[in-house]
UniProtKB/TrEMBL annotation:
InterPro entries in UniProt: NAD(P)-bd_dom_sf (IPR036291), Sc_DH/Rdtase_CS (IPR020904), SDR_fam (IPR002347)
Keywords from the UniProt entry: Oxidoreductase
SUPFAM superfamilies per the UniProt record, alphabetical: NAD(P)-binding Rossmann-fold domains
Protein's UniProt name: Glucose 1-dehydrogenase
Molecular function as annotated in GO: glucose 1-dehydrogenase [NAD(P)+] activity
This enzyme's EC code(s): 1.1.1.47
């Protein structure tokens, strides 16, 4: 009888997680590494990703740090080629890094901010996915997991540009799934609710806002970054081998509230 639980095992797989020096990305990288993957820790500063990779190795996990500002074309190419040189393959890409440089109404936003947020939140995952595709095709498959947001599904005041990028990422994922299924490449998207990280500090440090969120959301609380990792561990592994084009929530029920 086949051991079904062993399908979660990622031994021998290579995973790149963008924006994995902290927050959700770091938790995802840890979960993948704990299930056996060799993980590439990546964010904007080499010394920061080196420190995280070192912590992982000290815990018995397999990890290296490769700096990559995902808004920089040269660094994007280097991230993929160096990963391949080091590990000889790329099986999992988690497009997690994102920015939100502007909080306010659409009418007050400017074009430079629009260009920057589109470059990092949409163009970078698109390009990085295209860069890993030849390796995944060559291996006969792979798994791409894009990190969007409930903001990509439901508009919130003050987050219009960010929401538009996260919506675009959802549609990008569906198109990746449609075009690349024939190569055995799966693409899925995770939409977190409100998670306690540096990124969302402006939201969770506002007591009134959190009070309102906790009253509305069925689970009655915001989440910790580790609570996002399980879904990615499933989507990355053979346990999720028939899952592609999916939009998955980890939002405490936010999308069924209100
Ligand atoms: N927190 C939430 O409530 C929430 C909700 C829904 C969706 N999300 C999504 O979850 C993802 C992760 O967010 P988070 O909350 O975990 O944020 P976080 O704790 O602030 O971490 C962001 C990570 O991205 C890196 N990063 C930032 N800009 C980068 C760039 N241009 N290039 C490469 N790396 C970059 C940061 O590292 P360095 O600063 O070292 O570069 C860090 O590792 C994002 O896609 C976000 O939109 C978050």
């Amino acid at each position: 009888m086949e051991n079904i639980a062993s399908r979660f095992n990622l031994t021998g797989k290579v995973a790149i997680v963008t924006g994995s020096s902290k927050g959700i990305g770091r938790s995802i990288a840890q979960g993948l590494a704990e299930n056996g993957a060799k993980v590439v820790i990546s964010s904007r500063k080499q010394e920061v990703v080196d420190a995280v990779a070192e912590e992982f190795r000290a815990a018995g996990l397999e990890a290296v740090g490769i700096q990559c500002h995902i808004g920089d074309a040269e660094q994007r190419r280097a991230l993929i080629s160096k990963t391949h040189e080091m590990y000889g393959g790329i099986d999992i890409l988690v497009n997690n890094a994102a920015i939100n440089p502007y909080y306010g109404p659409l009418e007050g936003s400017d074009e430079a901010v629009f260009d920057k947020i589109m470059e990092v939140n949409v163009k970078a995952p698109w390009v990085l996915s295209n860069l890993v595709l030849p390796y995944m095709k060559g291996q006969g498959g792979g798994s791409i997991i894009n990190i969007s947001s409930v903001e990509g599904l439901r508009p919130g005041f003050g987050l219009g540009l960010y929401s538009a990028t996260k919506s675009a990422l959802i549609m990008l994922t569906k198109n990746q799934a449609k075009e690349w299924g024939r190569y055995g490449v799966r693409a899925n998207v995770l939409c977190p609710g409100l998670i306690k990280t540096k990124f969302s500090e402006g939201l969770w440090s506002d007591e009134k806002l959190v009070g309102g969120y906790n009253k509305t959301v069925p689970l009655g609380r915001i989440a910790a970054p580790e609570e996002m990792a399980g879904l990615v561990m499933l989507l990355a592994s053979d346990a999720g081998s028939y899952m592609t084009g999916g939009v998955f929530l980890a939002d405490g029920g936010y999308m069924v509230s209100g």
